[in-house]
């Protein structure tokens, strides 16, 4: 296996785990006594601790170096509160009120909000490819939420709101830690941010009785926290050592593909042709953006 093939395999497996995580969450919300806030807090806590412990063996000196300078830890906390929590909590709320495929696809609107932010920040019109991407994404979203019936909204308004909010959260997750990721290992930054984010949910989770989950339910929670978060993230990150970020960004399409296929087969989620076309149009924006860049680009970073 060549290094390129290895990188492609890592990216596909990692994003597939993310897609499986969304479907698992949909099952937990529908068939188990699990709420998004509890699952997000537990997921971030377990994954964050595992990432920091992992970093102790690989980047020992960086694990605590990020806390030595106030500018770094302030930005880390900002990343956790304004980036990590919105991207994860809004996504799971979108899954709860809708389903895993639509939530995952709407989260891919993140690059659209990055385009808008950069245009406003630099006070200039977006590039032609950006304008095309925005038009394609917006029409795809329209198809997704109306299911081709243009006179009415077929997807629950709450699912649309939280899905679009997840896209905004994804954009913030990508933009906020750019400076930190230039100085520190991504595992360290993400691990600490997840731990900080989990502490926000700790009072709520401690005030609620422990969910009465069966063995399958606890296995699902453990899968979301480990394979669906930590291992998915590590594999995706490892792929960047072998292939370009733009290529990895395009391979992220395996996440909504996995979520859609498994949701239809395992959970019997209704997902018709209009939704598939709309979803494909939204995902096409990732390909359009990837074709417009050479090398690293802020919109190619992934969260999980």
Explain this structure.
The chain has 304 residues and is mostly helical. It is built from 14 helices and no strands. The chain has helices at 3-31, 36-58, 60-65, 70-97, 100-107, 110-122, 128-146, 157-175, 178-183, 186-207, 215-239, 245-251, 254-266, 273-291. The chain is globular, with a radius of gyration of 19 Å.
Layout of secondary structure:
Layout: H1 3-31, H2 36-58, H3 60-65, H4 70-97, H5 100-107, H6 110-122, H7 128-146, H8 157-175, H9 178-183, H10 186-207, H11 215-239, H12 245-251, H13 254-266, H14 273-291
Helix pairs in contact: 1-5, 1-11, 1-13, 2-10, 2-11, 4-5, 4-8, 4-10, 5-8, 5-13, 6-8, 7-14, 12-14
Summarize the structure.
This protein is an all-alpha fold and about 300 residues long. It has helices spanning about 5-30, 35-60, 60-65, 70-95, 100-105, 110-120, 130-145, 155-175, 180-185, 185-205, 215-240, 245-250, 255-265, 275-290. The longest helix has 29 residues, at about 5-30.
Q: Spell out the helices and strands N to C.
A: HHHHHHHHHHHHHH
Q: Which value, in Å, is the CA radius of gyration? A: 19 Å
Beta strands, count: 0
Low-confidence stretches: 294-301
Please, how many helices? 14
How far do the termini sit from each other? Answer: 26 Å
Structural class: mainly alpha
The biggest sheet, with number of strands, parallel, antiparallel or mixed sense and barrel status, is: none
The total tally of domains equals: 1
Strand content: under 5%
Q: Helicity range of the residues?
A: over 70%
Tell me, rounded to a whole number, the average pLDDT: 87
Instruction: Specify the overall morphology.
Output: globular
């Amino acid at each position: 296996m060549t290094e390129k093939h290895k990188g492609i395999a890592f990216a596909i497996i990692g994003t597939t785990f993310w897609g499986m995580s969304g479907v698992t969450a949909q099952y937990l919300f529908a068939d188990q006594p699990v709420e998004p806030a509890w699952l997000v807090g537990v997921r971030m806590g377990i994954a964050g601790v595992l990432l920091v412990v992992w970093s102790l063996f690989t980047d020992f000196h960086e694990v605590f170096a990020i806390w030595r300078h106030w500018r770094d830890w302030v930005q880390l906390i900002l990343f956790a509160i304004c980036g990590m929590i919105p991207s994860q909590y809004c996504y799971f709320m979108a899954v709860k009120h809708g389903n895993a495929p639509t939530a995952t696809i709407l989260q891919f609107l993140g690059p659209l909000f990055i385009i808008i932010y950069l245009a406003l920040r630099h006070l200039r019109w977006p590039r032609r490819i950006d304008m095309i991407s925005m038009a394609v994404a917006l029409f795809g979203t329209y198809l997704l939420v109306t299911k081709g019936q243009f006179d009415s909204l077929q997807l629950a308004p709450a699912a649309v709101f939280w899905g679009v909010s997840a896209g905004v959260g994804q954009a913030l997750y990508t933009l906020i830690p750019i400076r930190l990721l230039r100085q520190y290992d991504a595992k360290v930054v993400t691990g600490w941010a997840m731990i900080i984010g989990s502490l926000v949910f700790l009072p709520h989770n401690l005030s609620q009785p422990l969910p009465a989950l069966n063995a399958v339910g606890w296995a699902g929670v453990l899968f979301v926290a480990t394979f669906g978060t930590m291992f998915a993230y590590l594999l995706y990150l490892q792929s960047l050592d072998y292939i370009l970020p733009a290529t990895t960004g395009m391979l992220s399409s395996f996440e909504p593909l996995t979520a859609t296929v498994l949701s239809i087969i395992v959970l019997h989620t209704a997902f018709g042709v209009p939704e598939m076309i709309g979803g494909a149009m939204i995902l096409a924006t990732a390909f359009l953006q990837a074709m417009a860049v050479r090398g690293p680009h802020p919109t190619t970073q992934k969260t999980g």
